[in-house]
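Q: Hi! First time doing this. I have a protein sequence and I read that you can turn it into a structure. Is that right? Here it is:
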Amino acid sequence: MRLTPMEEELRFDREPEVPRAGWLETLRRRRPERPVPTTWQGALRQGLQRLVVLLWGATIAALAIDKFVFPASDPGLGFYLVGGTILTGALASANGAGGHRGSTFASGREHERRVSAAFAYVLVGTLVLVVGALVESFAPSWQV
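A: Yes, that's right. Below is the predicted 3D structure, encoded as structure tokens:
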């Protein structure tokens, strides 16, 4: 009785096929990983930069909605819509909803990253809502 495979059973006639990346994967550009800040000040600086970029983007979107989508309505409506959308997305992402894995996390690190990002989004959403309230409160003095 022979338990080891014969030599011809170990040979393959052709190379094994490696699955190719789909067309969507070939179009997707992979960004290089940014280096992790080594100091507390570097981490704070990086976080504030992201916060400012998010806040500017949300403000521009809110102003565009106010100007082009709802030109005859209250001037703060775009800010309320954008701020509410950001807050909803932040709460959904912190709970794991909307991800490709559902509500489960692959690791504790992923959960920490999502909660950290959700904190920034909640802060930006709240700031956009506050700006909307300020715009609406000062609107009568701006109107001609």
